[in-house]
Structures are given as structure tokens and as C-alpha cells.
TrEMBL record:
<dbReference type="Pfam" id="PF13041">
    <property type="entry name" value="PPR_2"/>
</dbReference>
<dbReference type="InterPro" id="IPR046848">
    <property type="entry name" value="E_motif"/>
</dbReference>
<dbReference type="InterPro" id="IPR011990">
    <property type="entry name" value="TPR-like_helical_dom_sf"/>
</dbReference>
<dbReference type="Pfam" id="PF20431">
    <property type="entry name" value="E_motif"/>
</dbReference>
<feature type="repeat" description="PPR">
    <location>
        <begin position="111"/>
        <end position="145"/>
    </location>
</feature>
<dbReference type="InterPro" id="IPR002885">
    <property type="entry name" value="PPR_rpt"/>
</dbReference>
<protein>
    <recommendedName>
        <fullName>Pentatricopeptide repeat-containing protein</fullName>
    </recommendedName>
</protein>
<feature type="repeat" description="PPR">
    <location>
        <begin position="80"/>
        <end position="110"/>
    </location>
</feature>
<keyword id="KW-0677">Repeat</keyword>
<dbReference type="GO" id="GO:0003723">
    <property type="term" value="F:RNA binding"/>
</dbReference>
<dbReference type="Pfam" id="PF01535">
    <property type="entry name" value="PPR"/>
</dbReference>
<dbReference type="InterPro" id="IPR046960">
    <property type="entry name" value="PPR_At4g14850-like_plant"/>
</dbReference>
<dbReference type="GO" id="GO:0009451">
    <property type="term" value="P:RNA modification"/>
</dbReference>
<feature type="repeat" description="PPR">
    <location>
        <begin position="146"/>
        <end position="176"/>
    </location>
</feature>
Length: 315
């Protein structure tokens, strides 16, 4: 296209942001937009999408630069609920919860998404008590928490070891706020109990659910069994997990190498080498390969992608 309008740029950037694996492309395209000879200026929509891309990648330096650009050339985020919420989310996911809270406090208007972003930010940084206190302040402001808010709050309890508080919150969610529990909420409770070593309670919670547990729940519990060295429970949960994968058809139920590795590790902990070999053979028969993981970290203006021991620098 010889001439690109702001609508065109926004459509492309939004499209990239909607796909997590293309978040970096959204940032590259934003740079091209700023360099466009036609002098097209970013809008609020552009900046919210770019902040989303930065938060997905966890690139603090880029996100902070975007914040600075907004402060200098556009509206002050304090007066824009969507821009402010985007900044709270970005700083939280990039590890700067104090900066997120600073933006949050300055905002003159907050909606349920803003409160949820802040609660989730506190949650992922282990500030469970602060997240629960935020719920009281939120209610005092006349904002009713929704299902996503409770996912963040339950996650806060999970990461902070607040088991009793989490169970109480789960009860309040249903009885006081009429929020029907979703699989994410059940997952938070299972993860919370499992992290605390309450494997029996976690198992009983899963089998007592009013909906059929998915592979993610069983996988979380199996990982905890491996962590705590509970071989008997791990074997039982591992069989449940593989059974779920054979009967459910959605994406999270497809066989994953990590599931077999976890079960194999449970057997290895008990020195049941024949069972370890059996699991490995089953992986071979089903054509399941142990896929390498990867991570990324921003250093200066570079993104360092690290799959296994191989480091790839991306400008």
C-alpha cells in the first residue's frame, strides 16, 4: 500500500497483538509506523495494543519507552482508563509491581479491568495479602468483581500460600458475588492446595467438582506429586491424566511430553525402573517427543531467546 492511514496501521498492529507469538512483530510494526514518511500519528488504540505486546513479551525497557512517549505526546494516562489499565498490566507483567501500583493510584477513573489488572499484578509477585485488601477497597469504590478478578485473587492466594483465605474466597465468589466457578478458578484451588502439600485434599477437590476436570488440573496435581515425592498419589493421578487425554478432544487434552516425563519421574523417585521404561516406550509408540522449552529476556534493545542451552539474539 503506497499510503497507509492510522486505521490501517492499527488494524495490522492489533492483528499481531491478538496472536501471542506475533507480539514482537507488533512492536516492530509500531516502530515502522513512527518512521512513516506520511507522518501518521499513533492513537490511543495504537498505544494500548503496543503496551499489550510489551506485556506479553515482558520487555520492560520497551514498555517504559512507550509510557514516556504517551506522557510526552498524548493524553496523560491518569485521565484515560484504558491507557492506564494497559500500563498497570504492562508494568505488572514486566516485574515492576511498584510502578504498576504508582500508575494505579494516580488514575482518576478505574473500571473492573483496572482493578483486576492490579490484583493480578500483586498476585504474580506473591503479594497475596495486598491483593485481598484491594478487594475490600474495590467494593468500597462501588466496583463489583467479576470472574477474571477472582482468578487473579485466587492466584494471589496460591502464590502466597494463603490456603484458608483462598478457600474462603472461593466460597464467597459463589455465595456473595454470584460468580459461577470456571475451570480457571478450580485450577487455582488445586494449584494452591498442591503447592501447600495438601495433595489428598487437592485430589478430593478435583474428583468432587461438578464439572469434568480437564487435563490441566490433573497435570498440575501430577506436578505437585512429583515435587512432594508422593509416588502412590502420583501414579493414580498420572493414570487419570492419560485417561482424560484419551477421552477429551480439546487442545489442552492432547498428549504432551511433559505429562509422560512427570509420570516417569514419579516412578524414578520410587526406583521403579521397569515402569520408567514402560512410560518411555509408550511415548515412542505414540510418537511423542520431548520438546525443548524456551525463554526470553530483554537486555538493552535486544530480546534474548534461550531454547535449552542455545541463545539467539534478536534485534
Amino acid at each position: 500500500m503506497p499510503v497507509r492511514s492510522c486505521v490501517t496501521w492499527n488494524a495490522m498492529i492489533t492483528g499481531y497483538c491478538s496472536q501471542r507469538e506475533s507480539a514482537r512483530s507488533a512492536l516492530v510494526l509500531f516502530g515502522d509506523m513512527l518512521d512513516d514518511v506520511c507522518g501518521v500519528k499513533p492513537t490511543d488504540t495504537t498505544m494500548v495494543c503496543v503496551l499489550s505486546a510489551a506485556s506479553q513479551l515482558g520487555v520492560l525497557e520497551t514498555g517504559a519507552c512507550v509510557h514516556g512517549y504517551v506522557e510526552k505526546t498524548m493524553c496523560v494516562p491518569d485521565n484515560d482508563v484504558f491507557m492506564g489499565t494497559g500500563l498497570v498490566d504492562m508494568y505488572s507483567k514486566c516485574g515492576c509491581v511498584d510502578s504498576a501500583f504508582s500508575v494505579f493510584k494516580r488514575m482518576k477513573e478505574k473500571n473492573v479491568l483496572t482493578w483486576t489488572a492490579m490484583a493480578t499484578g500483586l498476585a504474580i509477585h506473591g503479594k497475596g495479602n495486598e491483593a485481598l485488601e484491594l478487594l475490600d477497597v474495590m467494593q468500597g469504590s462501588g466496583i463489583k468483581p467479576n470472574a477474571v478478578t477472582f482468578t487473579g485473587l485466587l492466584s494471589a492466594c496460591c502464590h502466597s500460600g494463603l490456603v484458608e483465605e483462598g478457600l474462603h474466597l472461593f466460597h464467597l465468589m459463589k455465595s456473595q458475588f454470584d460468580v459461577v466457578p470456571r475451570m480457571q478458578h478450580y485450577g487455582c484451588i488445586v494449584d494452591m492446595l498442591s503447592r501447600g502439600g495438601h495433595l489428598k485434599e487437592a485430589y478430593e477437590f478435583v474428583v468432587g467438582m461438578p464439572v469434568e476436570p480437564d487435563a490441566v488440573l490433573w497435570r498440575s496435581l501430577l506436578s505437585a506429586c512429583n515435587l512432594h515425592g508422593d509416588v502412590a498419589m502420583g501414579e493414580k493421578v498420572g493414570k487419570k491424566l492419560l485417561c482424560v487425554q484419551s477421552t477429551q478432544s480439546y487442545v489442552d487434552s492432547t498428549p504432551k511430553s511433559e505429562d509422560y516425563v512427570l509420570l516417569s519421574n514419579v516412578y524414578a523417585f520410587a526406583e521403579r525402573w521397569e515402569d520408567v521404561e514402560m512410560v518411555r516406550q509408550e511415548m515412542k509408540v505414540k510418537g511423542i517427543e520431548n520438546k525443548a522449552g524456551w525463554s526470553s529476556v530483554q537486555t538493552s534493545s535486544h530480546l534474548q531467546y534461550v531454547p535449552n542451552d542455545l541463545k539467539i539474539s534478536v534485534e
